[in-house]
Amino acid sequence: MKKIFVIIRREYLVRVRTRAFLLSTIASPILLLAFIVVPTLLIIRGGGDRQVIVLDQSGDPALFNLIQEKAKTAPQESDYATTGGPRPVETRFALTQTVVPPDKDIDELKRQYNSEVEKDSDKAYVVLRQGILDGVEPEYYGKNVSDFGIKDLERAINTAVIQRRLMLAGFDEEKVLKYMKQVEMKTFRVSASGESEQSGFQLFQVAFAMLFFIYVTVLAYGISVMRGVIEEKQSRIVEVIVSSVKPVQMMLAKLIGIGLVGLTQYVIWVLAAVLIAVSGAAFFATNGIALPNVPVSLLIYFVVFFVLGYFLYATLYAMVGAIVSSEEEAQHVQFPVMILIVVPMLLFGMVMRNPNSAMSIVLSLIPFFTPTLMMLRIAVINPPLWQIVLSMVLMVLTILGAVWVAARIYRVGILMYGKRPSLAELGRWLRYA
Fold first, then answer.
1. Are 92 and 72 contacting, i.e. CB atoms less than 8 angstroms apart?
2. Per residue in 384-402, pLDDT tens?
3. Inter-CA distances, 432 with 269, 270, 408, 411, Å
4. CA distances from 15 to 22, 86, 302 (A)
5. Which residues, 6 or more positions from 8, have their beta carbon under 8 angstroms from its beta carbon?
6. Are 16 and 261 in contact (CB under 8 A)?
7. What is the per-residue pLDDT across 184-236, written as a single tens digit (0 to 9) for each?
């Protein structure tokens, strides 16, 4: 047992004392924060003013002014408000009006503006044909039509047209403005502890952050186990080690030592997150930023599923390292293991939309998918306790089975060099007593 602790201590200290550990511990949260914050800041800053000419053939002198007014407030009244996401604060479109007489061919006028738009991608124009108030659709012409901000302009035109229809139909202007005021819906998450106001955008951020960290760390430390085994095989140091320690003991000590490195990293991240949340709550509140409510139980589940996920995939990677003799060979052999880690990330959207569906429940109970998908379901809806416990039990049983298989392959493969074994040879290794 003393020898096992020596290996665990060595595997742990060798990695914790490296600059790579320090950089990854600091850089990973910063990169994730940048991934979330930078797009938010870009949305808030907006894409700059876009010059839009409105070719107005509607015949309604009040329509353009109303569109212009609505365009200034469209970003604040858009879907960003109901999703809990960032609110753009700058006017996206600078509108100018060109009145087109009803007897003039507006399609002929379009050819002139098309040449201007072709030369300048920041220019665009909108066509309001005769009958716009009777159902004729507005038209937008620009070099770039993939800008999501066009939806804000569309919403402004739509709101203005509806308002003008009501007013021309004889409705009182004051009542029209009152009835057309946008309504924002608050979202409350109901749990056993009660209800709490929480937006879908905040929930997405928490779920994605946890999923991202589990995915990255399980993958990184699993590969670290594999590389450690390959390096020991290539340097032949393993031949010296197995003379005093059983191969299975060495494999388990390596798994535990490297796993403690990852656990140390998680503890640092959790403590940093708690410190930021406590000390920066007032600052964020004064700047209109609502921090998501993260229960302590969620952080505990986060650590538990990392540990279980790590041991499952690290065992598989240790098996891969024992089979191959170089990292070049490992690139091919580790592909099936990599697929098992990547697939849950591809299912993220489906489970996020309906975390309590039969498909989501079944997928989250598959041990290879559990660390990420069950963690996602816990972050979103907190499923029944029996499902969480069952997923943990299934993972533990799968880990024990993986360790049993890996131990038999490891004790033979750790001393094998040269040609990679075939499936038949692996079968013989498993039967080897």
1. no
2. 899 999 999 999 999 988 8
3. 43, 44, 7, 10
4. 10, 39, 22
5. 253, 256, 257, 260
6. yes
7. 666 666 666 666 665 556 667 777 778 888 888 888 888 888 888 787 777 76
Find out whether 96 and 52 touch, Cβ atoms under 8 Å. yes
Phi, psi of 242 (to 5 degrees): -70, -10
CB burial of 308-329 (b: ≥16 within 10 Å; e: otherwise) equals: bbbbbbbbbbbbbbbbbbeeee
Does the pLDDT of residue 264 top 70, yes or no? yes
C-alpha R_g of the chain: 30
**In this predicted structure, what is the pLDDT of residue 366?**
94
CA-nearest of 235, 212, 215 to 223 is 215
Structure tokens at 113: 């503006």
How far apart CA 13 and CA 15 sit, in angstroms, is 5
pLDDT of residue 408: 79
Q: Which residues contact 283 (CB under 8 A, 6 or more apart)?
A: none
- For position 278, what pLDDT does the model report? 65
Rounded CA-CA distance 222/315 in Å is 8
Rounded Cα distance, 406 and 146, in Å? 51
- CA-to-CA distance for 316 and 211, rounded, in angstroms? 20
Average the pLDDT over each of 3-12, 292-301, 356-365 and give the range with the smallest value.
292-301
Determine phi and psi for 178, rounding to 5 degrees: -65, -45
Task: Provide the β-strand partners of residue 188.
Answer: 197
Mean pLDDT over each residue of the chain, to the nearest integer: 78
Using CA atoms, how far apart are residues 194 and 23, in angstroms rounded to an integer?
40
Cα separation, 304 vs 302, in Å, equals 6
Q: Is the confidence at residue 38, as pLDDT, over 70?
A: no
3 state SS of 140 = strand
Residue 55, H or E segment: strand 50-56
Average pLDDT over residues 251-275: 81
Bridging pattern class, strands 50-56 and 93-99: parallel
Residue 170 CA to residue 181 CA, distance in Å, equals 19
Instruction: Give 336: exposed, middle or buried? Use CB within 10 Å, 0-12, 13-18, 19+.
Output: exposed
